[in-house]
Amino acid sequence: MRILCVYLLLLSLPISAQIELKIDAISSKDSIPTERKFTIQYHIANLTDKEVVFSLYPMSFEYNRRASMSKVMIYKIYQNQEFLDLENVFINKKMEIYNKAMEGAKTQEENNIALAKFFEQEMKISLDSINKLDEQTLLMERKKQFSTSIIRLQPNEKRDFTKTLIWNKSRYYKLEDNEFYLDENKPHYFELTINLMKEYFKDYVEVNEYQEILNNPSYIKGWFTSNKVEIDFKD
């Protein structure tokens, strides 16, 4: 019985984190009366004396519900200490322009024009080029894109990032049967989480290379959560 208790105690002890995800500061400015621009400064640091490798798009932010299995930064918002399962608190102004153009298209031709403009300006590739690509070329393009997500941190290296998020000052949100209100009289907190998985590499490398990654301790996996920092949703 005593041995079992000791074993359970060891399981409950925290494992030393290999990396640190930390929010350094959040500042805000009302760029126009109906919008508030937040500047999020954060960093990822290697806490070990060995190189660590993982797949992540550190400048891409998604809300918690959508991004739990994605290679992006997952953000959470708390009101007091209560987690708010919100989506679309922050707006993507460029995507709104393209979405409105496609929603307002009266013909398929107008929709194709709006879609082509999105690919050319944001993806840096023409829609015609994508349609002409064969399966093998598309796979090569996907591998090329994935390679940009691979981050290598040398021993004790710290990498800093800055992300701008825009809030349109909406306070009422509805998600399925749940309703949320950002109360201007309560404090709010912002938190980041990342989910690092070796499995992300599976579709982009050869079978033998993937097996090596699985067995290589330099390629890390796990959930890492930042500190909570107050964010200003007050009037």
What does this structure look like?
The chain is of the alpha+beta class and 235 residues long. Helix content is 30%, strand content 37%. The chain has seven helices and 14 strands. The strands form four sheets. Strands 4, 5, 6, 12, 13 and 14 form a six-stranded mixed sheet that branches. It has a four-stranded antiparallel sheet with strand order 1-2-9-7. β5 (72-79) and β6 form a beta hairpin. α3 runs antiparallel to α4 (108-123). The termini are far apart. Residues 3-15 have low confidence and may be disordered.
Q: Round the Cα radius of gyration to an integer and report it.
A: 21 Å
Strand content: 35-45%
Helix and strand pattern: HEEEEHEEEHHHHEEEEEHEE
Shape: globular
Distance between the termini: 58 Å
Low-confidence regions: 3-15
The beta-strand count equals 14
Q: Helical segment tally?
A: 7
Main β-sheet description = 6 strands, mixed
Mean pLDDT: 82
**Helix share of residues?**
25-40%
- Structural class by helix and strand composition: alpha+beta
